[in-house]
């Protein structure tokens, strides 16, 4: 899409951070941004005042435009709007995620998850909600070494090094759950994002059920040991079992029971996140939806800001429970039609 845009005449300014939308007379007339200044020979950022490389040099860029589309994602679009003085009471609220729990199996044979397609297998066995849990999808995780080193539990330098020595034998699995909670994105004084998210009981039950299911899957595939990511983690078979004693089977029953009660309190169970949605929701309610059904941004009081639109996953009225990529593209197309219509362009 970027290549096609460039061919059609779009100018793409990389290494830039938009600070605000410029508003005049109740409508958008452009954006301001800070652009990183780089050495033209090396492409490396130039140090700022005082020669401190930790504070790279930037220049201010002002782009004037009759229409502005904010598409910084559900974690950043609210910040741009808030920094622009658009403080509709629902901006940043109703953040929805697909919380993710993680199991890793360690196998005798090499897996080398970083070769080929890294996320090529999934199971929809538990895709529908059941009882006190939401639905979830099990997927093979893109387990390149950097991500595994980040995601797997830290139990000390030696233990982590030992695990990474066997990284070619590690196969991580993820349970992507239907959202079971709600959050909020707020802007700090420094202009960064503060993200709060709380799981409800169905969300917790979904993550725990996913751990137990993934453990069964890893064991059936022949994993020699299995770990559930958390602080502390929960291991099965790390020290091996005496063959022919039935100890492994008995230990796995205990392991499964522990996973069904896994502690997901703050800084305990590891919860990853995929697919952030819903922090600048579109809808018909002036009070509850910062964007109207066409993607136009509302100011406090419900007045539509002329020439300003949102075109990303933050528009979702709620979490959708599946990978939102195609839906985001459909929403972007819908908003694009609004932009074209209001620009007086046939499309």
Summarize this structure as a short list of keywords or feature phrases.
15 strands, nine-stranded antiparallel sheet, 347 residues, globular, alpha+beta, three-stranded antiparallel sheet, 7 helices
Question: Could you say which structural class the secondary elements and strand pairing correspond to?
Answer: alpha+beta
Distance between the termini: 17 Å
> What's the total helix number?
7
The tally of strands reads 15
Poorly predicted residue ranges:
none
- Percent strand: 25-35%
Short characterization:
It contains seven helices and 15 strands. The chain is α+β, with helices and mostly antiparallel strands. Helix 5 packs antiparallel against helix 6 (247-260).
């Amino acid at each position: 899409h970027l290549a096609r845009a460039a061919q059609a005449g779009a100018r793409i300014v990389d290494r830039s951070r938009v600070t605000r939308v410029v508003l005049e007379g109740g409508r958008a007339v452009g954006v301001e941004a800070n652009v990183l200044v780089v050495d033209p020979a090396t492409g490396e950022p130039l140090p700022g005042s005082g020669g401190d490389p930790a504070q790279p040099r930037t220049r201010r860029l002002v782009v004037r435009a009759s229409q502005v589309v904010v598409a910084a994602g559900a974690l950043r679009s609210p910040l741009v709007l808030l920094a622009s003085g658009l403080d509709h009471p629902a901006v940043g609220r109703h953040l929805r995620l697909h919380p993710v729990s993680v199991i890793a199996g360690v196998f005798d044979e090499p897996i080398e998850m970083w070769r080929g397609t890294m996320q090529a297998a999934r199971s929809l066995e538990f895709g529908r909600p059941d009882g006190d849990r939401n639905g979830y999808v099990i997927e093979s995780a893109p387990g390149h070494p950097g991500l595994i080193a980040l995601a797997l539990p830290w139990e000390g330098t030696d233990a982590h090094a030992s695990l990474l020595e066997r990284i070619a034998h590690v196969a991580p699995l993820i349970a992507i759950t239907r959202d079971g909670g709600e959050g909020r994105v707020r802007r700090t004084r420094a202009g960064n994002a503060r993200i709060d998210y709380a799981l409800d009981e169905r969300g917790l039950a979904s993550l725990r059920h996913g751990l137990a299911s993934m453990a069964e899957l890893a064991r059936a595939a022949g994993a020699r040991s299995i770990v559930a990511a958390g602080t502390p983690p929960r291991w099965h078979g790390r020290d091996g079992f005496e063959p022919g004693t039935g100890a492994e089977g008995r230990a796995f029953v205990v392991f499964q029971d522990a996973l069904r009660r896994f502690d997901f309190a703050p800084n305990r169970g590891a919860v990853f996140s995929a697919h952030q949605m819903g922090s600048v929701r579109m809808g018909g309610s002036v009070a509850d939806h910062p964007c109207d059904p066409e993607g136009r941004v509302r100011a406090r009081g419900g007045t539509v800001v002329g020439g300003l639109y949102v075109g990303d996953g933050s528009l979702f009225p709620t979490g959708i429970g599946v990978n939102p990529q195609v839906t985001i593209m459909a929403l972007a197309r819908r908003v694009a039609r609004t932009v074209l219509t209001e620009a007086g362009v046939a499309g």
